[in-house]
Specification:
By secondary structure, this protein is of the alpha+beta class. It contains seven helices and four strands, in the order H-H-H-H-E-H-H-E-E-E-H. A four-stranded mixed β-sheet has the order 2-1-3-4, with helices on one face. It starts with a helix and ends with a helix.
Length: 150
Amino acid sequence: MDNKKIDYLIEKHNSEASSLIQILLDIQSENHWLPKEALERVSEKLQIPLTRTMHIASFYKAFSLVPKGRHEVHICMGTACHVRGAKRVLETVEDLTGIKPGETDVDMKFSLETVNCLGCCALGPVIEINGKTHGKISVSETAEVLNSYK
């Protein structure tokens, strides 16, 4: 991510230090992760110590300090999804993508995470990809859903 884009996102929030989290969210949304260079630029422009910016970026789960794939896959492992076969769905996604939770594939296509609840228990088991919910997913449907994300 270049400095011009980072500066634009900072200026969008009137270069206010109180907008740090929103600025980081915007960078994360554009870039899928927060490179150290971007954090340094934000700190410099907002006149915030880098240690504070790093603390915020590492504290919130919404932020990633490592590169993420173009498609973020979240698999619900909450009770309702678990009893309906979420573990088998997770194993299928792991087999199809070659990655485990917390990892990104070498092509930077998919990042995989497990979550405790996505708030749609009646639809379990649930996969969320890029914020889109795929409910009542079966092991046999998993490959088709993943393949729909190019």
